[in-house]
Design goal:
globular, Growth Hormone, Chain: A, 83% helix, 399 residues, mainly alpha
Length: 399
């Protein structure tokens, strides 16, 4: 079924997306020399990305996810080119932040389309291993994304780097078309239109979150983890190049190492047999420990270790959450429900960016990171207590 072509399209799309994500905080900080503006720019490019998840998820239950996936790739290339033309005509780095925000919404549509397709593509195979292969392709793109962007940015203006990203989005779409040509069978669950008001899909999803056993608990824990991941992403460019006085190439190398660590972890999951609960506990504890290290380390070596722990085990925790979600959510409502959950989970990332911008200068950022790590720990403990209580109640009421 030419599954490698599907993985290649995922890799190339993530490569281009990561190039844009790398450019925004770095260019803004270089121009403004302000950690606050870097945090605000991160929030500006990520808020639209996450706010669009419910709408994009609902669309995947109504429209062919394959059409939505291909459309997201083609329109991202178009938006990149329009942003470059606007910058050349009028100037300013606002065009970079703006095009990244719009591409973020289109990336969300592509992510949700793949999220709906993956359980169907994985039919007959272990879903956690299929997820591991898919996320390995994504992480390989993340390995090369900062490196490619930094290499191009060293010789070209950011407009040229964005143009290269546009070409990669078109290549990703070509790979998707090639995969589909070799896999013409219809997807297992055809999209359907839900009757009623246009907000009905979101209402259905919220009811699932509240009523399906364990789904609210998973959502709360993931939001806590994403607070630490968000504050790490929002502050890393400013801390590495500002507080620790490292170069842009060092920053790109650190991001690359984080993605390499994630690939190693994902390959271990794909080839091994790890208990799902153990994956969740281990990744949660290591992300918490990494966040604390980035907050308190007096040197760039300690910060780098913490950064690698946070970014390296992020996707292990993601697999734990996604496998659990797939077991709980009904297939016919998978897109809309996942979209709302991802929104609830990931709003904490741009919120973390706003907190960095509003509360921290470069020297005070560590206190913000530490406070969010402690909040993550509190949410995790509360979820564990809730799980044990519900399990005990169920055991006592069973015949």
């Amino acid at each position: 079924m030419k599954f490698p072509a599907f993985l290649f399209s995922l890799f190339v799309s993530r490569l281009a997306d990561q190039m844009l994500l790398f450019l925004v905080p770095l260019v803004v900080f270089q121009v403004t020399q302000s950690v606050a503006w870097s945090g605000y720019a991160f929030a500006a490019e990520t808020f639209p990305r996450f706010l669009s998840f419910p709408v994009c998820g609902a669309l995947c239950d109504r429209v062919s996810p394959l059409k939505l996936l291909r459309g997201s790739q083609i329109f991202r290339a178009l938006v990149c080119l329009l942003g470059v033309l606007g910058s050349e005509a009028m100037g300013g780095i606002g065009w970079l932040v703006g095009l990244s925000a719009v591409c973020g919404v289109l990336t969300t549509q592509g992510v949700m389309a793949r999220e709906v397709m993956l359980p169907q593509i994985a039919n007959g195979h272990r879903f956690d291993r299929v997820l591991a292969h898919a996320q390995t392709a994504e992480q390989t793109g993340m390995v090369l994304g900062p490196l490619v962007a930094a290499a191009l940015f060293a010789h070209w203006p950011w407009q040229a780097v964005v143009g290269a990203a546009a070409a990669l989005f078109l290549l990703a779409d070509a790979a998707t078309a090639y995969w589909r040509h070799g896999n013409p069978v219809p997807l297992l669950h055809e999209p359907h239109a839900e009757p009623g008001h246009f907000l009905r899909p979101i209402q259905t999803a919220l009811l699932h979150v509240l009523r399906l056993p364990g789904l609210m608990r998973l959502t709360v824990v993931t939001a806590g983890v994403n607070l630490v991941i968000g504050v790490t992403l929002a502050s890393s460019a400013a801390l590495v190049t500002g507080l620790y006085q490292r170069s842009a190439n060092y920053y790109a190398g650190l991001q690359m190492l984080g993605a390499v660590a994630t690939v190693v972890v994902l390959l271990a999951i794909a080839r091994g047999a790890f208990a799902l609960r153990k994956m969740g506990v281990v990744s949660f504890l290591l992300i918490f420990g990494g966040g604390v290290l980035t907050a308190i380390s007096p040197s760039h070596w300690g910060y780098a270790l913490g950064f690698l722990l946070v970014t390296g085990f992020d996707k292990m925790f993601s697999i734990y959450i996604r496998v659990h979600r797939q077991k709980i959510i009904p297939a016919k409502d998978y897109g809309k429900t996942t979209g709302v959950i991802v929104l609830l989970n990931n709003l904490s990332q741009p919120v973390a960016g706003l907190l960095v911008g509003a509360l921290a200068g470069t020297a005070q950022t560590g206190w913000v990171i530490l406070a969010l790590c402690l909040l993550m720990a509190a949410l995790g403990i509360a979820a564990a207590i809730s799980h044990r209580t519900s399990t005990a109640v169920a055991a006592s009421t069973s015949p």
